[in-house]
Amino acid sequence: MSSSRTHYEVLGVDARDASTEDIKRAYKAAALASHPDKRASRVDGAAGDNSEFLKVQAAWEILKESASRAAYDARLLETARRDADVVVSDEFDIDDMDAEGSSPTKFTRRCRCGDAYEVWSDELLASFDAIDVPCASCSLHVRVRLTGGAAAAKFDAFAMATAAATAAAAAAAGTKDDAAS
Hints:
Radius of gyration: 20 Å
Strand content: 15-25%
CATH superfamily of the largest domain: DPH Zinc finger
Shape: globular
Strand order of the largest sheet: 1-6-5
Number of strands: 6
Order of helices and strands: HHHHHEEEEEEH
CATH topology of the largest domain: Microbial ribonuclease fold
Oligomer: single chain
Number of domains: 2
C-alpha cells in the first residue's frame, strides 16, 4: 500500500473489528482534536493547517455508510494484494470458479496444494477487471478476470442488488427522519 494512511488509521480504529459506532466515536474525537478553530486556541491563536481535519472528514464520509465502507475495504484489500509483490501462478475467468450461495456469493477453485482459492462477491468492485486471489494455505496466487460470462453476470446482479438495497435503506431512513420532524 502507499505511504499515506488509511481512513481507519486516520481515525485510529481497527479496520477488522470497528463497528459503525466505534467509527463515529473516533470521528468525533479526531474532528474535535484536529479542528482548525480548536487547534488555533491551543497553538498561538492563529488559524493553522487544516489538512489533518480534512483527512478526518474524508475518512468519515467513506466509513460512515456500510456500502461505501465495503467498497473502500475491497479497494484496500485489492491494493494490499497487488502491493504484496506476489507471483501469479495462473490466470482464469471467474466463470472457471465454483460459485456457492448468493448475496454474497463465494467463488472457489481448488489449488494444486489441495486447499482452495476463494473470493467473495462483496470483495469485488464493478471497476475491477481482475483480482489477485491467494490460496488459503500456500503461497500461490491466481489472477481472476471478472469480465463476461455467467459468474460475472451473477456478480453484476449482486452489485446492483447491493446498490438498490443501500438506496432503499437511505430512502427509508430519510422517510423516518421526515416523519419524526
